[in-house]
Known about the structure:
single chain, mainly alpha, 2 domains, 4 helices
Amino acid sequence: MHWLDHWLASLERALVVLLLTGLLGLGLLQVIERNVLASGIFWADELLQHMVLWLGFLGASLATREHRHLSIDVLSHFLPTRWQLWLGLLVNTVALVLCMLLVQAAWGWCVPSIRLAPC
């Protein structure tokens, strides 16, 4: 399983680099076209918004994998080691549930014809 985790992390890094490069390039092209040619790419703004969303999702995934995400751990400094493990389990379970809810909402937003739950 370690090789699969490493391979997925490498794929995520490559996608982050690709998205960031495309985001900067398309944004720059859009600014130039609007200011120089008084026109623009009509679908670019929507695509840039989607790219920012996916960049945020993939960046958060990479930060979580490397334990470099934002965390508030005031309570863990006061708890004994045994309780810290349970607190970590609780926090990770809540984060998992919230991420699943976000995925369901994003799926319904991106693919409105397919619903995971009845409306």
